[in-house]
Amino acid sequence: MKPYKIALIPGDGIGPEVVAEGVKVLKAIEEVDKNISFSFTTFPWGCEYYLKYGKMMDEKALDLLKDYDAIYLGAVGYPGVPDHISLRDLLIKIRRGFDQYVNLRPVSLLHPDLTPLKAKSEKDIDMLVIRENSEGEYAGAGEWLFKGNPEEVVLQTGVFSRKGTERIIRYAYEEARKSNRTLTSISKGNALNYSHVFWDQLFEEIGMEYPDVETYSYLVDAASLYFVTQPERFGVVVTSNLFGDIVTDIGAGITGGLGLATGANINPEKSYPSMFEPVHGSAPDIAGKGACNPIAAIWSVSQMLDFFGLEDWGSAVLQVIREVLKDKESLTADLGGRATTEELGEYIIEKLIK
């Protein structure tokens, strides 16, 4: 039996509700597959923790997490805690501390009724965005000078190292080769005359090693347009931290909304645990009402299973999500149904283990 240790950080708002449904899916898989076992440890970190202790997580958090096989995060953010604190002092601290430099964001249409692009089908909207996750525009480098004075100056510095840029681009080339898809780089080299000229240069340099991979390179403004008008242009996409954050929200918009958006923060070398999360935020307005959609959190379980090498189970979970989306009455209100969070989770498990 292969045991997997999973650290749970349910977090804020609807986070605990959706994580609970994802954990049920893993426990259901464990029940029928005697070759797998999952153990879970919950850590109470997040905004409530911050309001009580003045910090988003324990000072020794990374030491406490480092021996787990994966981290399963629900959501971070709540009124009363500034977003830059809730984000940087938990999510980004874990991403950078565990060198989770690959952010995998699938942008796949799981049911044709979900897209506002009514001329597009599942075949047209099926891409994987690979976002640099450790530096770039989110590196946190900069300075705030002469604060509160007329001479006030704020500097926000993007950090693009050769190591960081090469490894994310190479990862994307490998994924495009493995999946036999095109690779598109998204940058802004015409305006960002150092960082993104450097990015474009490395994309071309590394591409010389992958003559079998068909490549494209778009400026981020044009790419954003094509995400909406011609999403079929894209197979695998690689881009920087900021641009990846933005275009994947556009991707969520064309595939059914943030309630269906998932993300994996990967340390490919497995020197540290990787982290899996829905990306819909904490939605405090519906927290505790049993109204939130757990599908993104369960999709992130599918990503986790793939990462563990349990691709058959990962594919099975994603296929069940596709099937469930055909039955509108069994969905939550955001998707036009009447089910509670728990009812939808139970329905997914019922179909998975049938």
Automatic annotation (TrEMBL):
GO terms of molecular function: magnesium ion binding; NAD binding; oxidoreductase activity, acting on the CH-OH group of donors, NAD or NADP as acceptor
Keywords: Manganese, Metal-binding, NAD, Oxidoreductase
Cofactor: Mn(2+); Mg(2+)
Gene3D superfamilies, A to Z: Isopropylmalate Dehydrogenase (3.40.718.10)
Pfam families: Iso_dh (PF00180)
Domain Isopropylmalate dehydrogenase-like: 5-348
InterPro entries, alphabetized: ICDH/IPMDH, IsoCit/isopropylmalate_DH_CS, IsoPropMal-DH-like_dom
Keyword check for Manganese: yes
Name of the protein in its database record: Tartrate dehydrogenase
